[in-house]
Amino acid sequence: MKRQPLPERLFCHDCEARGVLSNFKRFIVSSNVLDWAIGIVVGTAFGKIVYSLINDILMPPIGLLLGKVDFRDLFIDLSGKHYTSLPKAQEAGAPTINYGVFLATVVDFLVVAVIVHLVVTQLTKWYAPTKECPYCTSQIPIRAVRCPKCTAPLE
Predict the structure, then answer these.
(1) Tens digit of pLDDT for each residue in 99-142?
(2) Residue 32: helix, strand or coil by DSSP?
(3) What is 11-128's CATH number, 1.10.1200.120, 2.40.30.40, 3.40.50.12780, 2.70.98.10?
(4) Where exactly are the structural domains of the chain?
(5) pTM (2 decimals)?
């Protein structure tokens, strides 16, 4: 069986570059990529707001209630020496387990998760109109013809 020669355009580097560029342009201006980029920018700004809420509003009263403790300064010194603060231990190069930083990060995550849940739930209520299933009273999309929870047919 004789092989067919490869098309000439496979070897045209200029043609290939133009194809990649046009594909890249289509990719960049597609709505999904733009939505994704806007989401990252807004998410970054939102993260800064939540970080400030946690570190400047929530954690100081919690630390005060627990005896004027800054969670980020809680650590276990593995070197056997006693350092008065985490920065001093790190400056000395002492090995430490920074459980306070871990606890603060867990609190950050939980607060962000709750806030994102509240925002998404509210936005869904505003922008996704629903109706109530007459059989199980769950909220379902208006265009649904069958309830996803109880599977009852709808009019």
Answers:
(1) 888 988 888 888 888 888 888 888 877 777 888 899 998 888 88
(2) helix
(3) 1.10.1200.120
(4) 11-128
(5) 0.54
